[in-house]
Amino acid sequence: MAKRSSLSIRIVEGKNLPAKDITGSSDPYCIVKVDNEPIIRTATVWKTLCPFWGEEYEVHLPPTFHSVAFYVMDEDALSRDDVIGKVCLTRDTLAAHPKGFSGWAHLTEVDPDEEVQGEIHLRLEVVPGTRACRLRCSVLEARDLAPKDRNGASDPFVRVRYNGRTQETSIVKKSCYPRWNETFEFELEEGAAEALCVEAWDWDLVSRNDFLGKVVVNVQRLWAAQREEGWFRLQPDQSKSRREEGHLGSLQLEVRLRDETVLPSGCYQPLVQLLCREVKLGNQGPGQLISLIEETTSTECRQEVATTLLKLFLGQGLAKDFLDLLFQLELSRTCEANTLFRSNSLASKSMESFLKVAGMRYLHGVLGPIIDRVFEEKKYVELDPSKVEVKDVGCSGLHRPQTEAEVLEQSAQTLRAHLGALLSALSRSVRACPAVVRATFRQLFRRVRERFPSAQDENVPFIAVTSFLCLRFVSPAILAPKLFHLRERHADARTSRTLLLLAKAVQNVGNMDTPASRAKETWMEPLQPMVRQGVAQLKDFITKLVDIQEKDELDLQRALSLQAPPVKEGPLFIHRTKGKGPLTSSSFKKLHFSLTTEALSFAKTPSSKKSTLIKLANIRAAEKVEEKSFGSSHVMQAIYTDDSGRLQTAYLQCKCVNELNQWLSALRKVCINNTGLLGSYHPGIFRGDKWSCCHQRDKTDLGCNKTRSWVTLQEWNDPLDHDLEAQLIYRHLLGVEAALREKHRQLSMGPEAGRGPTGPGEAPGDPLAELFQVLGDLQEAHRSSPAGSPPSEPSRILELQT
Predict the structure, then answer these.
(1) Region Disordered: which residues (predicted)?
(2) Residues of each domain in the chain carrying CATH 2.60.40.150
(3) Which one-letter DSSP state was computed for residue 433?
(4) Measured between alpha carbons, how far is 267 from 724 in angstroms, rounded to an integer?
(5) Averaged confidence pLDDT in the chain
(6) How far is residue 148's CA from residue 173's CA, in Å, rounded to a whole number?
(7) Which of the ends of the chain has fewer CB neighbours closer than 10 A, N or C?
(8) Mean pLDDT value of segment 792-797
(9) What per-residue confidence (pLDDT) applies to 64?
């Protein structure tokens, strides 16, 4: 049994932001921090005070996290980025919104005295004396303190205050992981109401000392406990008055916290087997579970349920059968061919999820080069005469402004070139399309043709395929390549317009160039010859796609399984160490790295021969490196054992915080079942004769900070988590149990009563009744399981000052 927490985050948009540039505008982006650690950076939206991001993330976290903060920044090319403001949501706030926090939140000022992080290790005792008791406070060490100096570290010391007396520790230079081991004593009077305050400070020679956080101890409770020792979270100084909210603008967010206690696999087997049996039988009647789940699932959570069911059946090898059952359900209630798969039904949502899970790598291969070309060319493209801005185009070869007609013709040529390249790439990609995707499209094509067999509906099976492939997969990816991981940044206004027009052309091709689609925007007429040609190409592509035989498909699937695609790949800088410390400028080299389920490998180029750097079974931790170690905040370390069993460290530098967290996440996920994973690590490096983080001189010293192996990002290519998916389905069914029982009551009174599987070996009776029994058993398993609450911290003696 395990307790798992995850945050679903959607950063929608901002409004009324203050201008930070001399142009009267800003270049805003967001940084998301969990407990003051940067996890996500959105793309920058240039020259606007009302940016739209629309970016979605899911972060898996330990149940002990405290808060998530959204910082809105203004990007500057020549100076340090400006902080505009922040929104902070505590864990308690999110827990109070089971359906998630959604809406606008005012940005607040970022006060340095509130930007604290880290923990301090204290031992607190009440010591009896001959005349009076004494309060003994031992300040042992601290970890993960905020770096306040330009070198990426701090010079921390601790100030202990009680009953008008103040004592201070020594200063530890250039460390966010100091160790003091110093003890202070104060006279203690019984019944004293004074609190003990332990403050951490960063010492500065010239300017005033910087506040690093504090712990306030309730002495009355300590007196009752007599002794307490542990790590205490540093708290901010919130005594300052706040300025009026709203003057820094607002941020629209959707944030949902989900805490799940996941039981052992065996507990979910009855539920999984029941759902799988229903899919294998392929029954579509009113009493069947999949049909009833769709009926009782609300619109707002249908996408989430569809994705979870899809992943569950993918793990059971039944994705094609599940989708086929949904196709039949949709076809059985569709009378008009032109309305097929146009609603947000469970079939449509499940198919969208399926293509993202199973077809994203294929999409990148087909669409990636075309998107890259559009971004690199940055051509002015416009077909709508009412929107043409001749001044934005520049001059012709004769050094005169282009006419509107020339602009329209040039734009049509550019779009025809992009559309032609895309259609050609698609036509060549039949064998590259994943076998399971091809099999699903073939089944969809066959079911639609059986339902609409007449000659006048000959295009309907093709449109059914393109409604998913083009309208719900390729076109959305063209419109928002950042959201489909095709680009790291959002497109600028000029590129966005080109992508929009290209997406419209792809939609017209996907609609098989119907009169209705042509009539919407007559100014798209210059593309019609290419659209008609594209329809023929697309029909030929689909015919080949759905024509592959089962044997060929199985052979291809076996061949592909022998060449497992990498979990993650891309360029990184590797830092090499020699002797007692890292080399200087020659100590890093740019290489192409590839992470598979077997090893982390590298090569000079993506196409050259790979050499293994680390076998994954040998990895003991994957963590960040503090900024001062290499002068960069985007360095990670992979700690592993060599052939002789000694611990070694590989330092890898990424180009941005997103790439850093994506690599860390990928490494942690593929190593999650490794034996001997470390519980602590050094965020610094061993330079000279000591660790740069905590200044310890023993190279084999246990790490001064705890590892964060539980912090990962949800990615489209993540391995399936069968137990979690079953738990999520159980949680959803529990939420709609009342509606299911009402359906069961209605069915038991109707003509369908008593209907059930009757074939040999099939379970008799009522699937809904079986489901209620399974849900009851799971409820009992959760009740009897040990509480999944996080380990308690010594917070009962804390009492924050206000």
Answers:
(1) 748-802
(2) 2-109+252-257, 119-233
(3) S
(4) 12
(5) 86
(6) 12
(7) C
(8) 44
(9) 85
DSSP character at residue 332: H
- For residue 793 the two structure tokens come to 């911290």
Q: Which residues pair with 229 in a beta bridge?
A: 123
Tell me which residue of 731, 768, 729, 730 sits closest to 311, measured CA to CA.
Answer: 729
Query: What is the C-alpha to C-alpha distance for residues 776 and 48, in angstroms, rounded to an integer?
Result: 54
- Give me 250's structure tokens: 């607002």
Q: Say what the pLDDT of residue 784 is.
A: 87
Write down the pLDDT at residue 448: 93
Residues of the chain with CATH 2.30.29.30: 568-713
Predicted TM-score (pTM) of the model is 0.84
Please check the confidence at residue 107 and state whether its pLDDT lies above 70: yes
Tokens 């419209």 correspond to 504
Looking at residue 52, its pLDDT comes to 93
Q: Tell me the three state secondary structure of residue 211.
A: strand
- SS3 (DSSP) at 557: helix
CA distance to 246, 460, 476, 679, 703, per residue, from 621 (Å): 43, 53, 37, 8, 11
What pLDDT is attached to residue 584?
37
Within its chain, how far is the Cα of 250 from the centroid?
23
Residue 800: both structure tokens together: 């924050």
Instruction: State the Cα–Cα distance between residues 455 and 470, nearest whole angstrom.
Output: 24
Q: How far apart are CA 158 and CA 160, in angstroms?
A: 6
pLDDT tens by residue, 137-168: 999 999 999 998 888 889 999 999 998 899 99
What's the CATH number for 119-233?
2.60.40.150
Instruction: Find where tokens 């805490």 sit.
Output: 259
Give the residue among 387, 391, 412 at the shortest CA–CA distance from 401: 391
pLDDT tens-digit map of 659-684: 999 999 999 999 988 999 999 999 99
The CATH code for residues 568-713 is 2.30.29.30
Q: Give the pLDDT of residue 592.
A: 92
How many angstroms from the chain centroid is the CA of residue 506? 29
For domain 2-109+252-257, give the CATH superfamily. C2 domain (2.60.40.150)
| CATH T-level assignment (fold) for domain 360-548 | GTPase Activation - p120GAP; domain 1 (1.10.506)
638 and 614 Cβ atoms separated by less than 8 Å: yes
In whole angstroms, what is the distance from residue 785 CA to residue 789 CA? 11
3-state helix, strand, coil in the chain (%, to 5): 40, 25, 35
Task: Using alpha carbons, select from 20, 62, 31 the residue that is nearest to residue 633.
Answer: 31
Distances (CA, A) of 770 to 270, 715, 744, 777: 9, 34, 11, 11
pLDDT at residue 454 greater than cutoff 70: yes
Non-local (6+) Cβ contacts of 5 within 8 A are 60, 61, 62, 63, 65, 257, 258, 259, 260
| H-only helix segments in 548-656 | 550-561, 627-630
Q: Closest Cα partner for 138 from 85, 98, 181?
A: 181
pLDDT tens digits, residue range 720-754?
Answer: 888 999 999 999 999 999 988 888 888 777 655 54
Locate tokens 């069947």: which residue?
A: 288
Place of tokens 């003890």: 183
Kind and range of the H or E run holding 528: helix 528-547
Residue 396 has pLDDT above 90, yes or no: no
The angle that helices 435-451 and 346-377 make with each other, rounded to 10 degrees, is 120
Return the minimum-mean-pLDDT range out of 89-98, 170-179, 276-285, 624-633: 276-285
The string over 457-490, giving b where at least 16 C-beta atoms fall within 10 Å of a residue's C-beta and e elsewhere, is eebbbbbbbbbbbbbbbbbebbbbbbbbbbbeeb
Helices and strands of the chain, counted as H and E runs? 20, 30
Please state, in angstroms and rounded to a whole number, the distance separating the CA atoms of residues 122 and 331.
67
